[in-house]
C-alpha cells in the first residue's frame, strides 16, 4: 500500500440499496482512504447481487489504483448509469481491492452501515 492510500477492514455490517432493492450486505467490506477524499466502502463481489449490474464501456484510470471498469445498476424502476466501479486488475500496492465493487455517492444509491 502507498502512504497516500490506506485500506482497512470496514467495521460492522454494510448494505447497498438502489431503486428499493437491496443489492448486497456484507461484514467483509473494505474501507479505502485516499488523501483528503471521503472514505469509500468496497464490497466483495460475492456479496453483491450481480444480476442487478450491467458492465458498461466506461473505463477510468487512477494513478494510485489502476484502471477501473464500470457497471450500471438496472432494477425494475430505473437504470443508474455507471454507478459502480471495480479495479479488476489493480496496481500491486492496492491489490486488496481486486474483486471488490464500490458505488458512487448518488441520490439513487445508498451505502450504509447497519
From TrEMBL:
Pfam families, A to Z: NTP_transf_9
Name used for this protein in its record: DUF427 domain-containing protein
Gene3D superfamilies for the chain: Domain of unknown function (DUF427)
Tree of life domain: Bacteria
Residue ranges occupied by any DUF427 domain in the UniProt entry: 16-105
InterPro entries: DUF427 (IPR007361), DUF427_sf (IPR038694)
Lineage: Bacteria, Pseudomonadati, Pseudomonadota, Alphaproteobacteria, Rhodobacterales
Amino acid at each position: 500500500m502507498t502512504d497516500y492510500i490506506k485500506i482497512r477492514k470496514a467495521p460492522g455490517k454494510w448494505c447497498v440499496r438502489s431503486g428499493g432493492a437491496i443489492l448486497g450486505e456484507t461484514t467483509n467490506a473494505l474501507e479505502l482512504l485516499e488523501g483528503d477524499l471521503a472514505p469509500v466502502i468496497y464490497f466483495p463481489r460475492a456479496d453483491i447481487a450481480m444480476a442487478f449490474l450491467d458492465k458498461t464501456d466506461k473505463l477510468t484510470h487512477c494513478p494510485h489504483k489502476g484502471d477501473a471498469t464500470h457497471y450500471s445498476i438496472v432494477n425494475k424502476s430505473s437504470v443508474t448509469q455507471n454507478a459502480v466501479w471495480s479495479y479488476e486488475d489493480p496496481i500491486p500496492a492496492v491489490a486488496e481491492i481486486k474483486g471488490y465493487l464500490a458505488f458512487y455517492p448518488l441520490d439513487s444509491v445508498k451505502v450504509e452501515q447497519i
